[in-house]
Amino acid sequence: MTMIFERCVAIFHALRYEKFSKTLGNCLLLLTIVITVCQCCWSYINEDFNSPQITCLFTPPKRRNERNIQLYVLLSVHFVGLLTMMFVYTVHHRNQRQLFRLNQSLSVRFQICENLTSSRLLFTLSALQLIIYFVYPLSVLFLKKNFNPTKNSLAVFLSNIHVAYLVSEYTLILPLVTIKFLRNIKQVRRSNIQSMIQMKAAGEEGWAVYSRQLRKQWE
């Protein structure tokens, strides 16, 4: 959510974003740390940790209610964040031509284009993260529903829950998706630059190209 908030500020306040982007980033980082620490303190306060656990993924039995509340909150936050990112990107993409018509400097226009690019990447990562966080609780609910203490092994049941936790796989996929996305963006830019270089700039063909670009700008 902090990344989405930062992208919203960058998109809707592109004129002033470069001036306070560092301060905004430090404040959001501090806010993320504070929220995480408060979440851990609320989840495990007064816990003696005497119950044996297979891994750190399993919370103590006394803290199941707190864990379920956190899980539902996380799912809600990720879902709202994904919808917000879709809305922000759609609105900004539709208004991109109008923003370019305004009397703005070249650096601001470049910032607008970069914001769109980073927003697409953030939307992709947010969607992937939301899928990961949806798979885990649904898998746990399915395993609990079909678990029979008298017929099934508890160790196998807990191992299946551990397998359903795909955050480690998401951590591995995250840089790969980012690298692939940036490579595609770089390739598209090179293609656009090459096509612009090959355009005729003189004669009737040059005038036709200029007229077409001018008409496209005001459409």
UniProtKB/TrEMBL annotation:
Subcellular location per the Swiss-Prot or TrEMBL entry: Membrane
Gene3D superfamilies in the cross-refs: Rhodopsin 7-helix transmembrane proteins
Transmembrane parts of this sequence: 24-45, 69-91, 121-143, 163-182
Source organism superkingdom: Eukaryota
Principal location listed in the UniProt entry: membrane
InterPro entries xref list: 7TM_GPCR_serpentine_rcpt_Srab, 7TM_GPCR_serpentine_rcpt_Srb
GO biological process assignments: sensory perception of chemical stimulus
GO CC annotation terms, alphabetical: membrane
GO molecular function terms attached to this record: transmembrane signaling receptor activity
Pfam families, alphabetized: 7TM_GPCR_Srab (PF10292)
Alphabetical keyword list: Membrane, Transmembrane, Transmembrane helix
Family: Belongs to the nematode receptor-like protein srb family.
This protein's name: G-protein coupled receptors family 1 profile domain-containing protein
